[in-house]
Amino acid sequence: MYYVLWMPSALSDLHGIEKYIAEDSDYYAKKFVDEAFKATDRLSTFPKSGRMVPEFGIETIREVIYNSYRIIYELNEDSVNVVAVIHGKQQLPDTILE
User: Do 1 and 45 meet the contact criterion of CB atoms below 8 Å apart?
Assistant: First the structure.
Protein backbone atom coordinates (compact mmCIF):
# COMPACT_ATOMS: atom_id res chain seq x y z
CA MET A 1 0.00 0.00 0.00
CA TYR A 2 1.35 3.41 -1.00
CA TYR A 3 0.72 6.77 0.61
CA VAL A 4 -0.73 9.41 -1.73
CA LEU A 5 0.82 12.73 -0.74
CA TRP A 6 -0.20 16.02 -2.33
CA MET A 7 2.83 18.31 -2.49
CA PRO A 8 2.40 22.06 -1.84
CA SER A 9 2.95 22.78 -5.55
CA ALA A 10 0.02 20.54 -6.56
CA LEU A 11 -2.21 21.94 -3.83
CA SER A 12 -1.39 25.43 -5.05
CA ASP A 13 -2.29 24.44 -8.62
CA LEU A 14 -5.55 22.93 -7.40
CA HIS A 15 -6.38 26.03 -5.37
CA GLY A 16 -5.83 28.24 -8.41
CA ILE A 17 -8.13 26.08 -10.52
CA GLU A 18 -10.74 26.08 -7.77
CA LYS A 19 -10.58 29.86 -7.55
CA TYR A 20 -10.99 30.20 -11.31
CA ILE A 21 -14.01 27.86 -11.44
CA ALA A 22 -15.55 29.58 -8.39
CA GLU A 23 -15.82 32.80 -10.41
CA ASP A 24 -18.75 31.07 -12.13
CA SER A 25 -19.84 28.46 -9.60
CA ASP A 26 -18.81 27.67 -6.03
CA TYR A 27 -20.58 24.32 -6.33
CA TYR A 28 -18.57 23.20 -9.38
CA ALA A 29 -15.34 24.54 -7.91
CA LYS A 30 -15.78 22.38 -4.81
CA LYS A 31 -16.88 19.42 -6.92
CA PHE A 32 -13.78 19.75 -9.11
CA VAL A 33 -11.46 19.67 -6.10
CA ASP A 34 -13.27 16.70 -4.52
CA GLU A 35 -13.15 14.74 -7.77
CA ALA A 36 -9.49 15.57 -8.36
CA PHE A 37 -8.62 14.04 -4.99
CA LYS A 38 -10.79 11.00 -5.78
CA ALA A 39 -9.00 10.60 -9.12
CA THR A 40 -5.79 9.87 -7.20
CA ASP A 41 -7.30 7.55 -4.57
CA ARG A 42 -6.64 4.42 -6.63
CA LEU A 43 -2.92 5.22 -6.70
CA SER A 44 -2.54 3.96 -3.14
CA THR A 45 -3.31 0.46 -4.40
CA PHE A 46 -2.37 0.78 -8.08
CA PRO A 47 0.44 3.34 -8.22
CA LYS A 48 1.35 2.51 -11.83
CA SER A 49 -2.21 2.88 -13.10
CA GLY A 50 -1.41 6.32 -14.50
CA ARG A 51 0.52 6.56 -17.73
CA MET A 52 4.13 7.69 -17.97
CA VAL A 53 4.39 11.41 -18.73
CA PRO A 54 5.44 11.44 -22.41
CA GLU A 55 7.52 14.62 -22.07
CA PHE A 56 9.79 12.92 -19.54
CA GLY A 57 9.71 9.26 -20.54
CA ILE A 58 10.68 8.26 -16.99
CA GLU A 59 8.96 5.24 -15.44
CA THR A 60 8.47 6.93 -12.07
CA ILE A 61 6.94 10.17 -13.42
CA ARG A 62 3.32 9.43 -14.22
CA GLU A 63 -0.02 11.12 -14.65
CA VAL A 64 -3.73 10.61 -14.18
CA ILE A 65 -6.04 12.46 -16.55
CA TYR A 66 -9.04 14.12 -14.90
CA ASN A 67 -11.36 16.18 -17.09
CA SER A 68 -9.03 18.44 -19.10
CA TYR A 69 -6.29 18.28 -16.48
CA ARG A 70 -3.16 16.23 -15.99
CA ILE A 71 -2.49 15.24 -12.39
CA ILE A 72 1.23 14.54 -12.39
CA TYR A 73 2.86 12.42 -9.73
CA GLU A 74 6.19 10.90 -8.85
CA LEU A 75 6.30 7.29 -7.75
CA ASN A 76 8.66 6.59 -4.84
CA GLU A 77 9.42 3.46 -2.84
CA ASP A 78 6.39 3.76 -0.54
CA SER A 79 4.59 6.91 -1.67
CA VAL A 80 2.98 8.61 -4.60
CA ASN A 81 3.79 12.33 -4.55
CA VAL A 82 1.36 14.43 -6.54
CA VAL A 83 3.46 17.33 -7.81
CA ALA A 84 1.25 19.26 -10.24
CA VAL A 85 -2.21 19.72 -11.70
CA ILE A 86 -1.91 21.22 -15.17
CA HIS A 87 -4.45 21.90 -17.90
CA GLY A 88 -3.91 19.54 -20.81
CA LYS A 89 -3.33 22.43 -23.23
CA GLN A 90 -0.57 23.95 -21.10
CA GLN A 91 3.05 23.15 -21.71
CA LEU A 92 4.72 21.39 -18.79
CA PRO A 93 7.15 23.67 -16.99
CA ASP A 94 10.74 22.44 -16.83
CA THR A 95 10.71 23.00 -13.07
CA ILE A 96 7.80 20.66 -12.36
CA LEU A 97 9.94 18.16 -10.47
CA GLU A 98 11.95 20.60 -8.38
Answer: yes
Q: Which CATH superfamily is domain 3-87 in?
A: RelE-like (3.30.2310.20)
Over the stretch 4-62, which tens digit does the pLDDT of each residue have?
A: 999 999 999 999 999 999 999 999 999 999 999 999 999 999 999 999 999 889 999 99
Inter-residue long-range contacts of 20-24, CB under 8 Å, 24+ positions, other chains counted = none
In three-state secondary structure terms, 84 is: strand
Asked if residue 15 lies in contact with residue 6, where contact means CB atoms within 8 angstroms, the answer is no
Helix axes 26-41, 8-22, angle to 10 degrees: 150
Burial of 49 (0-12, 13-18, 19+ CB in 10 A): exposed
Strand partners, 84: 72
